Amino acid sequence: MEINGAVVLVTGASSGIGAATARAASRAGARVVLIARREERIRQLAEEFGDALAIPCDVTDRAQFEAAVGTALERFGRIDVLVNNAGQGLQATIDAIDPDDFRALLELNLVAPLVTMQAVLPQMRKQEAGAVVNVSSGIIWATLPGSGAYAASKAALQKLSAIARAEVADAGIAVSLMFPSITETEFVGTVRGSVEDALQMEAASGLKPQSAEAVAEAILDLIRSGAEQADLVPEAYGGTLKN
Fold first, then answer.
1. Residue 43's CB: how many other CB atoms inside 10 A?
2. Could you report how far apart the first and last alpha carbons of the chain are, in Å?
């Protein structure tokens, strides 16, 4: 899909990969819809762009997101791309995972991407074209103690996305998956469970953190190509990135 002139909706757009993706898309000529709970941040970000819309929204609230889609359609008349980036981690061993934390994680990392896809697919079907990029994680290829809940949520998102891709391909819609590695963002500091353990696991991995901008460029490449997936994970850790 051509990004120049496209309407690109990004969730989790207030920081990290989401903010970087929004900036990269805007530089490429897209009209960007910024979705996040932190209203001040996305409004400031929207001011950087020539044609952007900031909509405060909790993506785990179906009514809020559907209203946001309606607002975007009123402004731009179409939605060409959805980047499902909003997400959170959970660091705890299996015997210490709080079931309520796990449920909240699944709501954000798995159920919300389903709801957001359901909200934009009718418009994309009318357009007979569209692109969805769901952001998973390279952690699903590792077996790291303490990461079970988070890895499970992202592994489930992989399967959901693969089946969605097969189901909507005939409508001219490409559903793709992005697998980042460790990225320089606020992510680790916001995990449920033990932030300290998450930081220790990250430090012990031996992986060099990548920039959010590098992930954003890979996401834009997926939008352009419509490929099934891309990753920034080194080969030694299960990905395709040359060491």
1. 15
2. 30
> pLDDT value at position 189?
74
Q: Which residues are catalytic?
A: 136, 150, 154
Write out the two tokens for 46.
């929207």
How far apart (Å, rounded) are the C-alpha atoms in residues 181 and 205? 11
Please tell me the number of Cα atoms within 13 Å of 228 on its side-chain side: 8
Provide the total of helices (H) and of strands (E) in the chain, helices listed first.
Answer: 8, 9
Task: Look at the pTM and tell me if it is higher than 0.85.
Answer: yes
What's CA 188's distance to the chain center, in Å? 16
103, amino acid identity: R
**Domain 7-232 in CATH 3.40.50.720:** yes
Picking from 48, 55, 180, 42, the residue whose alpha carbon sits closest to that of residue 119 is 55
pLDDT tens readout for residues 49-85: 988 999 999 999 999 999 999 999 999 999 999 999 9
pLDDT digits (tens, 9 = 90+) for 4-51: 999 999 999 999 999 999 999 999 999 999 999 999 999 999 999 988
DSSP conformational letter for 183? B
To 10 degrees, what angle do helices 16-27 and 212-225 make? 50
Give yes or no for a contact between 198 and 89, defined as CB atoms under 8 angstroms apart.
yes
Q: Which residues contact residue 137 at a Cβ distance below 8 angstroms, ignoring those fewer than 6 apart?
A: 150, 151, 154, 179, 180
**Cα–Cα dist 2/223, whole Å:** 8
